[in-house]
């Protein structure tokens, strides 16, 4: 088993804030690959709308980045992941896309110490987050279903202040 902890939840649930606070406390963390992929595409001259118009390509790009990162991590190191491979399955389902074979294969081998699913905060739109409240809630439900179907521990993290959420997580390692 790895010593990795997944931080996940629907859009605008405080994942990145939580992961950044964990990093500030000295823990190894990862980045959210969907946002990173969009940023790289924007640097290459594409708009968010252009990237999102090709959802299968977008989802596969995010998955490839996630797979590469997880393959490079030391399984014995304590790492907090800002989303993980199973998140991709939830997004494929949300978009009514047939899951990529690479995703299905990867899901057979995922091995996380614990997944922390953050309860939703009020939706805050930004350049990368295009979902409305209904989509936010549906994605959150799908993420919860995907992770709860895996044979790995899942902990729901209630809405608390950012520092209290971090402490809630650390108390459950």
User: Mean of residue pLDDT?
Assistant: 93
User: How large is the count of helical segments?
Assistant: 8
**For the largest beta sheet, what order do the strands appear in spatially?**
2-3-1-4-5
Order of helices and strands: EHEHHHEHHEHEH
Q: Count the domains.
A: 1
Number of strand elements:
5
Radius of gyration: 15 Å
Q: What is the 3D form?
A: globular
Task: Describe what this molecule looks like in 3D.
With 173 residues, the protein is of the alpha/beta class. It has one domain: 3-Layer(aba) Sandwich (Rossmann fold). The chain is built from eight helices and five strands; from the N terminus they run βαβαααβααβαβα. A five-stranded parallel beta sheet has the order 2-3-1-4-5, with helices on both faces. Helix 1 crosses helix 8 and helix 5 packs across helix 6. The chain is globular and about 40 Å long. The model has no long low-confidence stretch (mean pLDDT 93).
Primary descriptors:
alpha/beta; Rossmann fold; 12% strand; P-loop_NTPase
What's this, in brief?
The chain is an alpha/beta fold.
Secondary-structure blueprint:
Elements: E1 4-8, H1 15-24, E2 28-29, H2 33-43, H3 48-52, H4 55-72, E3 79-82, H5 85-94, H6 101-107, E4 114-118, H7 133-149, E5 154-157, H8 162-170
Parallel strand pairs: 1-3, 1-4, 2-3, 4-5
Helix pairs in contact: 1-8, 2-4, 4-5, 5-6, 5-7
């Amino acid at each position: 088993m790895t010593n990795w902890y997944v931080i996940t939840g629907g859009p605008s649930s405080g994942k990145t804030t939580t992961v950044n606070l964990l990093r500030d406390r000295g823990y190894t963390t990862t980045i959210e690959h969907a946002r990173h992929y969009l940023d790289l595409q924007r640097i290459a001259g594409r708009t968010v709308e252009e990237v999102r118009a090709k959802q299968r390509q977008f989802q596969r790009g995010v998955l490839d980045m996630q797979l590469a990162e997880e393959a490079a991590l030391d399984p014995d190191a304590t790492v907090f992941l800002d989303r993980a491979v199973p998140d991709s399955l939830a997004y494929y389902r949300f978009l009514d896309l047939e899951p990529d074979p690479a995703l299905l294969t990867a899901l057979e081998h995922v091995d996380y110490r614990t997944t922390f699913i953050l309860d939703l905060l009020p939706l805050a739109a930004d350049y990368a987050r295009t979902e409305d409240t209904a989509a936010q809630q549906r994605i959150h439900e799908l993420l919860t279903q995907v992770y709860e179907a895996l044979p790995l521990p899942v902990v729901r993290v209630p809405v608390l202040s950012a520092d209290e959420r971090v402490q809630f997580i650390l108390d459950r390692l």
